[in-house]
Specification:
- It is built from eight helices and 16 strands.
- The protein is an alpha+beta fold.
- The chain has two domains: 134 residues, no CATH class; 115 residues, Gcn5-related N-acetyltransferase (GNAT) (Aminopeptidase).
- Strands 3, 4, 5, 6, 7, 8, 12, 13, 15 and 16 form a ten-stranded mixed beta sheet that branches.
- The longest helix is centred in the first third of the chain and has 17 residues.
- The protein is globular and about 60 Å long.
- Bound molecules: coenzyme A (COA).
- Coenzyme A binds next to strand 14, helix 7, strand 15 and helix 8.
């Protein structure tokens, strides 16, 4: 079913595409949405990640399948379900429109789960203010300037430049911060993947905070986007400036490598959300996820 720009123009409140996730606001005009979504469909049929898909850094293969037969597209409402085969399969239903009927969307998502053999379902909806009962993440845009903010707080250095006795403690840090993605990053590193620098802060010769991997990739029109990183500080060291120091080091790293921008998602109202706001990132709105 061809998508219509006039119908999309009423519902694209947050720049976020099925399969790709957050995109630069310039790429989320109705016309660009239609153009990029057509590429998403082609890549989905071929089982590959688009050249500008941030997941390409992990693998060129991508098995997310847009459930074309289940798309709903009418004035005021666009609903696009996507099947992700990992971990027993998940149907993610992307809802664009005002006042979603969440119960109906959850029921439709469960029906898709049954039809396509997926174990899990989620409804993802968008808004410019977080009023709904769901898990809200705020999408932030960082545009890099030639002169980033000054360094602050504890010293930040690349993990690869740490003394060997400090580098070895990264495994311990990664295990403790497994919920924030660091253990899978550590496993990739141990397997020889070099996904980009990981910046760390230390205390008593141990890694206690980290952000990475740092990778720049061209977006659809060729602007340089810094990809989102894993970011965490050990709980017992939080509130002492390590997080801000790590983020500012990323700002400098991005500016030095002429990155144009970065998109990050943070739990609305959480520590990283507050940190990004206080660092001047632009809020692009909210994505809310509800299990089906
Ligand atoms: C986000 C995180 C890395 C911040 O690390 P940190 O070392 O505690 O951060 P800092 O001490 O530098 O604090 C910087 C700012 O973050 C915000 N912040 C930190 N802790 C906060 C909290 N508990 N509640 C609200 N805001 C908080 C504040 O704006 C703070 O600035 P302030 O001290 O001037 O008020 C840390 O909380 C963490 O590891 N959280 C779990 C993982 C995570 O959420 N990662 C982000 C993924 S996007």
């Amino acid at each position: 079913m061809p998508l219509r720009a006039d119908w999309l123009s009423r519902v694209l409140t947050v720049p976020y595409l099925p399969v790709l996730g957050p995109v630069h606001p310039d790429l989320c005009t109705p016309e660009m949405f239609i153009e990029v979504f057509a590429k998403v469909l082609t890549a989905s049929r071929a089982g590959v990640a688009l050249p500008f898909d941030k997941d390409r850094r992990w693998s060129p293969v991508k098995r997310d399948m847009v459930l074309v037969d289940e798309i709903v597209h009418r004035p005021g409402t666009t609903i696009i379900p996507v099947l992700t085969p990992r971990r027993g399969g998940t149907v993610k239903t992307y809802f664009y429109g005002d006042s979603p009927d969440l119960n109906a969307l959850q029921a439709a998502t469960r029906r898709c789960c049954t039809t396509y053999g997926a174990a899990h379902g989620r409804v993802i909806s968008f808004s410019t203010n977080p009023t709904r009962q769901a898990n809200h993440t705020r999408v932030h845009l960082k545009e890099f300037r030639p002169a980033p903010s000054a360094a602050t707080g504890p010293a930040v250095i690349p993990l690869d430049d740490c003394a060997p006795e400090v580098t070895t403690t990264f495994a311990e840090f990664a295990a403790a911060m497994a919920d924030h993605g660091f253990d899978s990053l550590r496993q990739r590193r141990d397997a020889g993947h070099r996904d980009g620098p990981i910046l760390v802060t230390q205390a008593a010769d141990r890694v206690i905070g980290a952000i990475g991997p740092l990778t720049v990739m061209p977006d659809q029109p060729g602007r340089r986007m810094l990809l989102p990183q894993y970011f965490a500080v050990l709980p017992e060291h939080r509130g002492q400036g390590h997080g801000r120091a790590l983020w500012r080091a990323v700002e400098r790293w991005g500016a030095e490598r002429r990155a144009d921008y970065q998109l990050v998602q943070a739990q609305a109202g959480g520590a990283s959300d507050q940190l990004f706001r206080s660092e001047g990132l632009r809020s692009l709105g909210y994505a809310s996820t509800l299990p089906a």
